Write a sequence for this structure.
């Protein structure tokens, strides 16, 4: 919660008075597709990202008249070294590239899509590949979503 939720809230609250005084601004909050649904073995992460969505949606509604725009970015799997550098339960580096990360879009592609969404003043943007289907499965075909997540096993 400290990194995935409170840090963004604190930073936003520090910057907002200056943004409002200047007549507006645009906050880009980096969430995750897991902010739209729960996922096995990501309970704390999902909770923090769900909290982000609530905060930034409320902030957008409260401050739109002051010229504050908010874009919540929901990336799926992005090709980074996050799984390699993740820590195991004993605090040692995991050292293994997650299959999902390895097949994700590049960070550069993700960044370009974020820039495009901000220019279009999108309120929310989903960025990824086939992993984005989980958002729609959860929303429109929940039985399929639950069937798929029940098959997830830790490695």
């Amino acid at each position: 919660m400290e990194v995935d939720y409170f840090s963004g809230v604190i930073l936003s609250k520090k910057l907002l008075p200056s943004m409002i005084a200047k007549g507006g601004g645009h906050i880009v909050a980096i969430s995750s597709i897991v902010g739209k649904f729960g996922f096995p073995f990501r309970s704390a992460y999902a909770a923090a990202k769900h909290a982000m969505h609530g905060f930034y949606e409320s902030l957008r509604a409260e401050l739109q008249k002051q010229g504050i725009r908010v874009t919540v970015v929901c990336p799926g799997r992005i090709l980074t070294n996050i799984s390699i550098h993740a820590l195991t339960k004993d605090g040692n580096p995991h050292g293994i590239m997650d299959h999902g990360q390895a097949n994700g879009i590049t960070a550069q592609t993700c960044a370009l899509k974020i820039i495009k969404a901000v220019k279009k003043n999108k309120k929310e943007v989903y960025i990824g590949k086939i992993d984005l289907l989980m958002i729609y499965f959860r929303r429109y075909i929940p039985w399929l979503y639950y069937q798929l997540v029940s098959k997830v096993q830790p490695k």
User: Anything to note?
Assistant: Helices lie at 2-21, 43-63, 82-85, 99-102, 107-119, 133-140, 142-149.
